Amino acid sequence: MAMVSEGDVAPGFELPRDGGGTVSLEELKGKPVVLYFYPKDDTSGCTKEAVNFSALADEFAAAGAEIVGVSPDPVKSHDKFKAKHDLTVTLASDEEKQAIQAYGVWVEKKMYGKTYMGVERSTFLIDKDGKIAKTWRKVKVPGHAEAVLEAVKSL
Asked: pLDDT tens for residues 110-127?
C-alpha cells in the first residue's frame, strides 16, 4: 500500500461525484486542493467534519482552494448526505478504493475487539503544482477544518 508524504507528487484520481459527473485532480490543478478522506456518510464524526468544512467553504474559496471529500460510499449516498446536512463541499465516491489506496488511507482498524479494513480519517493539502504540502492522519474532527484553512492560507 502506498504511503504519500509531504513533498510527494499527489496521486491523480478521477472519481464520480455528487450531483453527477466526475472530479479529478487534473481539473483542479493550478489551485490548492483540500482532499479529505472519511469512512462513511451520515455518521457522527463524518457529518461534523463535512459540516465544518462546509461552514468554512467561503473562506477556503477566498484563499483559492477547492475542498473534495472522498469515501467509499456510492454517489447516491453522497447526494442524500449532502442534501440532509446542506453540505457545500464536493463529495467523491471511491467504491473501488483506488484513490483511498493510492493515498494509503485503507488501513486495518479495530473496534470492540474486532479487526477490519476501513478508511482512516485523513486530509491532504495539495498545492497548486500538484504536490502534497501537508498531511493530517488519524484526524480528530474538532478544530480540524480551521487548522486546514490556516495551512491553506500559509501556502
From this structure: 989 999 999 999 999 999
Per-residue pLDDT, 3: 79
C-alpha cell at 67: 475542498
Beta carbons of 49 and 145 less than 8 angstroms apart: yes
Beta-bridge partner residues of 125? 34, 134
Q: Which residue has the cell 483542479?
A: 28
As a whole number of angstroms, the distance between CA 83 and CA 36 comes to: 19
Contact 29, 130 (CB under 8 A): yes
List of residues 6+ apart from 43 with CB closer than 8 A: none
Residue 141 CA: distances (Å) to CA of 40, 49, 147: 14, 6, 10
pTM of the model: 0.96
For residues 45 and 51, give the distance between their C-alpha atoms in angstroms, rounded to a whole number. 10
Catalytic residue among 15, 46, 105, 133: 46
Which residues on neighbouring strands pair with residue 17, listed in sequence order? 92
Residue 75 CA to residue 65 CA, distance in Å, equals: 23
Q: Is 46 a catalytic residue?
A: yes
Residues of the chain with pLDDT below 50 are none
Query: Which ranges in 30-97 belong to alpha helices (H)?
Result: 44-55, 57-62, 75-85
